[in-house]
Amino acid sequence: MAENSIVDALITILSVLVVLANVTICLLVITNKSLRTYTNGFLVSLAISDILLGGVLFPVILTIPDSPASGYLISVILLSGVANHCCITFDRFIAVCYPFSYSYLIEKYFMKMLLTAWVVAVAFSLLPLCWDTDQTLTIHEVYIFVEIVGFIFLPYLLIIIAYCLIFKKLREHFKLLKETAVSITRREQARRLSSEAKVAKVCLILIATFALCWLPIIYMTSAMAVGRPEIVPLVLLTVSKFTLAMSSLINPLLYSFKKEDFRSAMKKVFTRNANGQVYPTVQRNQVLTVREGTQLDVP
Description:
Membrane topology: Multi-pass membrane protein
Structural class: mainly alpha
Protein name: G-protein coupled receptors family 1 profile domain-containing protein
Subcellular location: Cell membrane
GO molecular function: G protein-coupled receptor activity
InterPro entries: GPCR_Rhodpsn (IPR000276), GPCR_Rhodpsn_7TM (IPR017452)
């Protein structure tokens, strides 16, 4: 009993941190015009998914452990996370592999991609209501199989392929630059490519962390679907709560420490709080180019 109380207390603390950290990310993008890029728009969508985890899912699990709503919430958060990762990957793939078409494509499909990501995640997660979520039915087993294979494994396979192509293209660009005579244009291109590589690495770490942290849930769901609950260690139920919390907490930390535009914005916030005024800071890449996505049309 005491052990459960400690776990619940830790999860409560983590859920508060998850909400605060991800709300901070959303507010930074809203209040800083330089952060209002399409790339960061996808990251805000992912942050909203994390806020749902910390602000809705965990409170439900802690207050009503056997609530049927928790299963639907887990599915919505998981599938929306995967869908947002697909959007982020598409954004980076177009930016690196088709830079001249980036502005046109991202402006055309940005809102459509976000809406599709959330509508599909919510609609598919609520589909079991059609058969009262009766886990003994064959249709539910088929549903779980389609969710895991079609909505998790297949998207991540495509994401892995996309990032292989992204880093291959970046290597080709760097190789071409080495063969180019030194000039201002070359230095600008080298700076842009270096920034592209950093953003791609951050996004890849983000996606890999999410996949690893959700593995316990995916494993338990698969075991239940095939009628083998005995192969799920009891400790995994507790471990999964912490891995989910860490996944949603790592995301904003990655942006703050590894993504240059967020890091610069955070420095300005701390400078303002410490000195009562903002001192202008010179950013290494002050003009947002295709590497971070064109600016959102928000005043």
